[in-house]
Amino acid sequence: DELPGIFDLTEQEKIPRLCVYHLAYAGRGDKMRRFDLEPRRTRAVVDYIFQRSQDLHARGIDKDILTVDNHADNPYLYMRVQKEQPQRTEEVYQMLRWNGGNQSGIAVSSIDPLGHLHVDQFSWHYSLGDVRQRPFAEIWSDTSDPVMRLLKDRKPHLKGRCRVCKWLDVCNGNLRVRAERYFGDFLAPDPACYLTDEEIGIAPGTPAAEESARWPVPVHDESAGSSQLSPAPRRRLR
Ligand code: SF4
């Protein structure tokens, strides 16, 4: 419910860039996991971000507006373009393909203060090596590390709905550390994906539906639908 004010402030103060992060279940984010938005509400927030971004653009106000850490936003954006600007679908899809979805271990890395190299800033629990001992390029291209090997070619190894999703090329299975924290398996489906089985190309009664059901995620529990941003219940951290 604070997002409208944040957008207003960004505009009033002429701030050039606004990043809105989905919750990553790692570090402090993992402790706050129970406060994560339900899929329906996540959709409403993403709708709102799209709407405000379009409004800024329509008024000629140049700003970078980013959503971060949930690459289900890529297909969700594409579906919105299909509805609202069908003439741009091919162009937008090409850009999303270029983006490629989640890039942990591919184009994203993180080095902690001790020199340990990680696949992203949320995965400090797993070190690929120490850049004080080995050059970055050597560690980064060493696929004898099992996590690095899987992340660089993850699609055939994913499980559940991510394995059979039609949007893999533009989402790439989303944030693996969130799946790991939720299911204890970093190849499991990302629990923060708010797209329904239908939206990701899974038809009822098919083997793909069975695979999806083997790894239940929150969106399975609700019938998702685009809605307007309404005040969220206030919650307090305990
Ligand atoms: S099911 Fe997985 S791969 Fe498909 S959009 Fe959702 S998070 Fe991405």
UniProtKB/TrEMBL annotation:
InterPro entries: Aldolase_TIM, Radical_SAM_PqqE_MftC-like, rSAM_sf. Residues 209-238 are annotated as: Disordered. One of its GO terms (biological process) is heme biosynthetic process. Signal peptide: none annotated. This is 4Fe4S-binding SPASM domain-containing protein.
